[in-house]
Design goal:
This protein has helices at about 5-20, 65-75, 90-100, 145-155, 175-185, 215-220, 230-245, 285-295, 300-315, 325-335, and strands at about 25-30, 30-45, 50-65, 80-85, 110, 120-125, 130-135, 160-165, 190-195, 210, 250, 260, 265-270. It is an alpha/beta fold and about 325 residues long. It has a single domain, classed as Ribokinase (UDP-N-acetylmuramoyl-L-alanine:D-glutamate ligase). The chain has a 6-stranded parallel β-sheet, sandwiched between helices. A 4-stranded mixed β-sheet has the order 3-2-6-7. Helix 1 (about 5-20) packs across helix 9 (about 300-315), helix 4 (about 145-155) packs parallel to helix 5 (about 175-185) and helix 9 (about 300-315) crosses helix 10 (about 325-335). The N and C termini lie close together (about 10 Å). The mean pLDDT is about 90.
Length: about 325
């Protein structure tokens, strides 16, 4: 039987879930196409010691910024998005997927003919992923694309209540763009949530909330910290916050849950809400999206983290980058 405290937390989560359609969130960052090729491997190739996969089906889905936006849209959030694609068929596919996901809102898709659309292709035999190959450029955006992206993003700040910045290190979120967006969002009183990449967190200075996973935090502080080491993660997180002027930090720890570090010194451990874990890919997108939407409607960080844990618990029970629908979150609360 749930305790009185657990019942109260669940009631708060349900109320917050019902308020999310009042949110309007601007999604910026790296837009990617996830491709899956499914089949069966029954023999080795006579040409090389590798399995021969008999392809049975294919699937495409939104990744990166697209997955964040899609997660928000299915929760009823109004999503404004600025994405970047190459001048290629994958770019057209990606634009179509995102446009359909955000309907009736229309994403702004900028085409850069000098770079390919970012695509991750996974070859899966049975339940085993055999290989993933990436088609991408990680170079920072150049003129005239970089100023165009920044101009369009800044225009949309007047139309939203929060900003979600999805950094996968593909060159869209340059340090100068991050500095500009974070500063102007702060001037307007807009909360900003960043899903980080790389070892240098200085570009995220001034962000309301940064959401690294354990591995990303370890890279940023230059030492490996186990996801079960609550004290070590909290100490490292506090140092990172102080060093780079990050207001708050939410460390995602897979089956260990999440650790919320607030600027007022409060630390909270949010346990995992997953009933089964099949695939953690995309769970970070879900967490940062829910946090941005929660802050957009005036929820506290702790309230947002509780709901984000529930949504992530639904997502990791699915295969591939997935979304958590309101009815699925309610069902998980009923267990």
């Amino acid at each position: 039987m749930p305790s009185l405290n657990q019942k109260a937390q669940r009631a708060k989560a349900l109320k917050l879930l019902d308020r999310l359609p009042l949110a309007t969130v601007l999604c910026l960052g790296d837009l990617m196409l996830d491709r899956y090729i499914y089949g069966q491997a029954e023999r080795l190739s006579p040409e090389a010691p590798v399995p021969v996969v008999r392809v049975q089906s294919r699937k495409i889905s939104l990744g990166g910024l697209g997955n964040v936006a899609n997660n928000l849209a299915v929760l009823g959030v109004t999503v404004k998005a600025v994405g970047l694609v190459g001048d290629d068929p994958f770019g057209q596919e990606l634009k179509g997927l995102l446009t359909k996901a955000l309907n009736p809102e229309k994403p702004l898709i900028i085409v850069d003919p000098t770079r390919p659309t970012t695509v991750k292709t996974r070859l899966v035999a049975g339940i085993q992923q055999l290989v993933r190959y990436d088609e991408e450029s990680t170079e920072l955006l150049a003129d005239p694309i970089a100023p165009k992206y920044e101009t369009e993003a800044i225009k949309l700040l007047t139309k939203v209540k929060a900003v979600a910045l999805s950094d996968y290190g593909k060159g869209v979120l340059s340090p100068s763009l991050l500095s500009s967006i974070l500063a102007q969002a702060k001037e307007r009183g807009l909360p900003t949530v960043v899903d980080p990449k790389g070892a240098d967190y200085e570009p995220y200075r001034g962000a309301t909330l940064v959401t690294p996973n354990c591995q990303e935090l370890s890279l940023a502080v230059g030492k490996s910290i186990a996801k079960s080491d609550s004290k070590g993660l909290a100490e490292a997180g506090r140092k990172l916050m102080e060093r780079h002027g990050l207001e708050n930090l939410l460390i995602t720890r897979s089956e260990e849950g999440m650790t919320l570090l607030e600027k007022n010194g409060h630390t909270q451990i949010i346990p995992t809400r997953a009933r089964a874990v099949y695939d953690v890919s995309g769970a970070g997108d879900t967490v940062m999206g829910v946090m941005a939407a929660a802050l957009a409607v005036g929820a506290t960080l702790a309230e947002g983290a509780e709901l984000a844990a529930l949504a992530a618990g639904v997502v990791v029970g699915k295969v591939g980058a997935a979304v958590a629908r309101p009815e699925e979150i309610r069902d998980s609360l009923a267990c």
